[in-house]
Amino acid sequence: MAKRKPDEPPKGAPAWQSTFADLMNLLLCFFVMLFSMSSIDAQKFELLAASFNQTFSIFSAGATAIGDGVLISMGVSQLNELDDYINSTGRDAEGETIPEDLESANEVMEEAKLKESEELAEKIEEAVKEKNLDKEIDIEFTAQYVQLTLNGALLFDSGSVVIKEEALPLMNQLGIILQRFSEGNIEIEGHTDNVPMSGAKYSNNDELSSGRALSVFYYLEENTTLDMSRVKHSGRGEYAPIADNSTEEGRARNRRVEIKVYNTLSSYE
């Protein structure tokens, strides 16, 4: 019987050696990549270190406190607010200088907000004068809002949150003005003097100021087409005086209602 010819061994290196060689090559490339990523430009590092040392006086003696609870020690960074510290020096998180146009961006935005508030204040002031309400309503503005201030004595009796009958025409005209010019949010704030409440429905000035702001809110809700989801109300009590509470004149000025009409660029929500 003829014998089977034995199979010839495959030529070249065993298959496992090719697989092993490929694996070694991949590992080599991986570690070379890691090394290249971890290499440090000595010159840039020295410049960055010098900048930190001059600005914060850190890296000397191993550890230096920059702020409460903020340390660099043993080469481990605990600066959770590092970006804030670096940005305050005109540099970004990588230590690079922030371009001047970015530094001035906030200033440009503030100027735009202020300009819009000024234009809005002029329109409201003109409308107030047309309706002969300039003696009853004071107008001021900031970069965020235009503020209309009404003396509390015009709207409410002492210790009361019910809008007086003779103040209703004023409130009606005020509602028309707000409908015409309010494109942003509106906030109604009630304010009082620091005289303690006694013998009244409300036990303290906080409750009284909140009740008065809410009364104005309800009136606008019932008598205007304002989107009330954009109208807020709050009571500030005696805590934001605009005059001296030691005099009757000052206390009268502090008893007031402020309506803040925020411009469309405002960050207020």
Describe the structure.
The chain is an alpha+beta fold. It has 9 helices and 8 strands. The strands form 2 sheets. A 5-stranded mixed sheet has the order 4-5-8-6-7. It has a 3-stranded antiparallel sheet with strand order 1-2-3, with no helix packed on it. A hairpin with a 2-residue loop joins strand 2 (70-73) and strand 3. The longest helix is centred in the middle third of the chain and has 26 residues, at 105-130. The protein is elongated. Mean pLDDT is 80; it is low at 1-5 and 59-76.
Which key terms come to mind for this protein?
single chain; alpha+beta; five-stranded mixed beta sheet; 8 strands; disordered N terminus
| Contiguous uncertain segments of 5+ residues | 1-5, 59-76
Largest sheet: 5 strands, mixed
Q: Averaged pLDDT, please?
A: 80
Secondary-structure element string = HHEEEHHHEEHHEHEHE
Q: Rg to the nearest angstrom? A: 35 Å
Q: Structural class, from helix and strand content? A: alpha+beta
Helix proportion range = 40-55%
The strand count comes to 8
Share of residues in strands:
15-25%
Our measurement of the CA-to-CA distance between the termini, rounded to an integer number of angstroms, reads: 99 Å
